[in-house]
Amino acid sequence: MTIIEVKQLTKVFGHDAGRAIPLLEQGMSKEKIAQELKLTVGVNKAEFSIEEGEIFVIMGLSGSGKSTLVRLLNRLIEPTGGQVLFKGKDVVKMNPEELRQFRRKNIGMVFQKFALFPHRTVLENAEYGLEVQGVDKKKRTERAMEALHLVGLKGWENHRPDQLSGGMQQRVGLARGLANDPDILLMDEAFSALDPLIRKDMQQELLELQSRVKKTIVFITHDLDEALRIGDRIALMKDGVIVQIGTPEEILIQPANKYVERFVEDVD
Ligand code: ADP
Ligand code: MG
């Protein structure tokens, strides 16, 4: 079943960004728009569906628009145009209260730098999202403990982040993202700051976790190996546009164009 359907989603940065839309429609290049209108096209006409329970990877070089795209899904960045349908309901049209509910109930986020508070315990860090949402202490402790258990950090609740290894700190970040039991977990370069070996462990752990909790995961990475290892499907971005969406096999065996071909050519 489709959980997210994205239609014609565009984000242009800059004052009076809407001016860029008709010009993009007419085929004006992003370089020209940047030059003449002093506007940056972060994402243009992204169109895709995410199925419930899959790991959907957004891959691309730095600056290709991955973070912009994933933040558009829950309107941490406001779209300039297009739709984001969550189970058929347009997130772009939600009023502030509906949006708050949507983020609280349906979305969890995990970031690259873990964004942990050094002076708080592991448990307090895992609870943080729930705290912001105003969940009462008893309930948020219960849920955060459950999430810490899920990521294998039972027994570490009262430690501080600096007493944990990098991989464990990232698991605290993961627990925080899972604490509200969201339908969708958004992970933006979540493993990119980890050492290569720890990173591989985390990829494996995420796959195992996924098979247990069956969340829908939108996973951003600039790393092809990581994308191939964990993605059910991969969307490859270039200059704010998705150039191909496919399973790892499809991306490797049937690259849609020269760019994808070059992107994957070093894989054996
Ligand atoms: P990625 O996550 O793939 O590295 P981003 O989504 O961060 O890429 O950026 C995509 C494009 O959007 C880049 O060209 C970047 O310069 C531009 N961009 C991102 N955020 C802003 C902003 N706040 N203002 C202007 N341009 C931005
Ligand atoms: Mg990014």
From TrEMBL:
Enzyme class: translocase
Membrane topology, as annotated: Peripheral membrane protein
Gene Ontology cellular-component annotations: plasma membrane
GO MF, one example: ABC-type quaternary ammonium compound transporting activity
UniProtKB keywords: Amino-acid transport, ATP-binding, CBS domain, Cell inner membrane, Cell membrane, Membrane, Nucleotide-binding, Transport
Localization terms from the record: Cell inner membrane
Gene Ontology biological process terms, A to Z: amino acid transport; glycine betaine transport; response to osmotic stress
Main localization of the protein described in the UniProt heading: membrane
Catalytic activities: a quaternary ammonium(out) + ATP + H2O = a quaternary ammonium(in) + ADP + phosphate + H(+)
E.C. no: 7.6.2.9
Keyword Transport: yes
ABC transporter domain: residues covered: 28-264
Subunit-structure text: The complex is probably composed of two ATP-binding proteins, two transmembrane proteins and a solute-binding protein.
UniProt family annotation: Belongs to the ABC transporter superfamily.
Protein name: Quaternary amine transport ATP-binding protein
Organism: Paenibacillus etheri
